[in-house]
Amino acid sequence: MGAVLAAVLAASLAGCSSTGGKRAEERAQEAAEGRSAVSTPRWTFAMVTHSGDGDTFWDIVQKGAKQAAVKDNINFLYSHNDEGQQQAELVQTAIDKKVDGLIVSLAKPDSMKAVVAKAVKAGIPVITVNSGSAESKAFGALTHIGQDESIAGEAVGDELNTRNRKKVLCVLHEQGNVGHEQRCAGAKKTFDGTMQNLYVDGTNMPDVQASIEAKLDSDKSIDAVVTLGAPFAAAAVKAKQTAGSKAEIDTFDLNASVATGLQNDTLGFAVDQQPYLQGYEAVDLLWLYRYNRNVLGGGLPVLTGPQVITADDADALAEYTKRGTR
Question: Residue 27 and residue 31: Cα distance in Å, rounded?
Answer without folding.
Answer: 6
